[in-house]
Known about the structure:
The chain has eight helices and eleven strands. It is an alpha/beta fold. Strands 3-2-4-5-1-6-9-10-11 form a nine-stranded mixed sheet, with helices on both faces. The protein is globular and about 60 Å long.
Amino acid sequence: EVKIEKFTATDEYLNNMNKGLNMGASIAKNCPRLNYDISDWHLGNLSILGGFSGSGKSNWCTSNSVIPLLEQGYQYTIISNEQVRDEFMNHVMTNVLANKFNYFKITRKRLLAGNFTKEEWEYLKKAQKFINDNYSEKLHFVKLFEYDIAETKKIVKKLANEGCSYFLYDTFKAEDSSDDNTKGLMIEYSKQLFQLASKLNIHILMTQQLAIYMENTRYLTSACLSMSKQVKEVADVVILMRNMWDDEYEEEKFDIKPYNFMRGSDGKYVKDGKGHGVKEEFTLSKDDKNLIMFLDKNRWGEDKKTYVYNFKGAWNVWEEKGYCHVHTKNRF
Length: 332
């Protein structure tokens, strides 16, 4: 039933704003700058993370959204139509070993190989206990074997009614990509997921692939989204990601000049004569795996911002290094 209300600035509204009740769940643990700019994940909304196939979308979501929210006490559900539970468990297991026990001898590759040493078993059992004590009761996993929007909605409704407010839908695709109306279907499905998030007052983070023919695009925008860029319309936040290229490092032709804002000895940001923050550039190593994140849409503040991340893929460990300036000239 549609509710018609008077547009009154009530005391309840002001008190709720004062208490920060309209803030969402923070992802500032690994993404302090991005989280500041989007003001958390917001309930009642659908957000999109887009990346090329194999770019690390699932890894990013696990380390930078799922785990930080679990550690704040929220329930989280992963709905996957591509990876099975054990693949996500590998993401979490190596992340916990590295971040909670400072143990780096077990990489994701080592985990797959098996035949563990006595020491490795000792740390694996520690990580197992940590995961079971801290994540297990709050984290749900659903494997979908088809891109079925009706089944997805049914699962989300069930778990939302049981108290889960945050969902990862990995990956958003049409049920039949050979259908001539694939673009129309994806627009319709995205609308249905947004309406579901709004009605149930939950947050859905949805991963989506970028079009293969856009792989040489330097400055990513929603036009790079595979099948249908119009799905952007229903999202509150759209973040896109790609690997950093060799010609974007220091002294190269398309140097992205990564920077942070300088702080003084008192911890406060340093301002110039016009009251603007003072940028302090830093250097990235080509020996590391670095990625660029593009904030293409942001309903909660300024968009068209770019950030650089370091990714230690062997342990699924991410670090947001700072902001950067990305050129617009494509690679080829």
